[in-house]
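Batch manifest line 129
LIGAND: iron/sulfur cluster
JOB: complex structure
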Amino acid sequence: MTALPPERRVSGPAARRALTAATTTPRFEGRIVPKTFVRKAAQFLARDGIVLYDNPDAFLICAFKHGNAPCEPEPGATAPRQYACQHCCGNTVRTDTHAHQARQRADEIDQLAAASPEKIAKCLRGKAK
Ligand code: SF4
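JOB STATUS: finished
ARTIFACT:
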């Protein structure tokens, strides 16, 4: 048996939901855009809990479910506020590659903290968690 490459292995609280969504969503194979496209696209994105958003800045994929989102999206929003992403969120999914990148970033921040004055170091260590 061959091991899956790191970008194919996923973990996190929403991993099962993300895998289900990824395997049941129809593949886009190209088509002419009809007049109903905007309405259908809005319906597609409103499928709460099964639309996946790439969030490379937070080293994760967001399986956005409005009621679980600590990033405080507007009422009725169909997309997360990714710039306010919280690492404690139940919508997170990480590939092994994301987890490795997050660990590297935390190590870099720890190194910065080691060379910083105490107050700044404390703040940096909080970010590295
Ligand atoms: S906190 Fe992050 S993972 Fe959670 S819903 Fe918001 S953007 Fe998605």
